[in-house]
Amino acid sequence: MAEITFAFGSSHGPTIATRPENWDVIVERDKVDPRYDYNELLRKANPSLQQELTAEKKQQRWEACQAAITKLQTMLRDARPDVAVVVSNPHGTLPDDTFAVFGVFRGETLSGPASNRSERENDARVQRYSGPAHPRSERVAKTYPGCPPLAEHLIASLIDEGFDVASTQQHRPELGLDEAFTCFYRHYQLDGSVPMVPVTLSRYLPSQATPRRCFQFGTALRRAIDSWPENKRVALMASGGLSHQIMDEELDHIVIEALRSKDFERLCTLPRDRLNLGPGTPETLNWIAVAAAMDPVPMTLVDYQPCYRSPAGTGHGITFGVWK
Q: How does residue 11 score in pLDDT terms, banded at 50, 70 and 90?
């Protein structure tokens, strides 16, 4: 039978991938992001945030993130997984896309974006849901191995458990597999040899499950993995979160403490309106699902860095954790 040998959570996104001296480029996108009112955030922001915006502070936080990534790289390598299951959210969706609450990718190949991806990212309809496009250091399309046998087993098992799971076996060529999933390879499994099954939770309202439903999904996902008859070592990852693009340090610490203490009722009753104050903050749901899958093991915090990038309080509560 399959066995989860390593589980971890990691933020993803441009703050990690962009050197701190270039965070101002991200701020320019923050100012025009249609999903919130930057000027209103600036008006209400605490002036003390200026202390977080020095070059020294930003460099310190970025270096701490890189150190945490290196630590997780080593732990993942030592776990020697045969396959990975990554729980995250689709990005860059359009209004005419299907907003499945839960989904599993079952294709043989995880495709990178085609060369015309920038046209889609700059589409105003995409920006409505995912914000303005940001420069990427990795423009070359890559492909990674999928794992259809595990994917199809997960789909069947989750449906048996009462979850209506969407599935697909091919990405739109202009979108490909987005950074929410490719960060597994970009930051952690660097040679791209471990097959992956992407499991999606919608972060978009109204097609967004409650925290409690995501917790229930996580427990069902664990049973599905455990019941896969193949003798394989499985890595499980929660990709995304915590609060961003609007920072909410207080919420981040509430979530982290609940993950560490296994206060599942606190996680299941997180206010949905607060989870949706920042466009990216619903990615916290991925951590709730993985925490449920790893019960009774609590999360061990590797690091948390509140990476502010503007006086309006935009930024990213970058978090790294493991379930040992």
A: very high
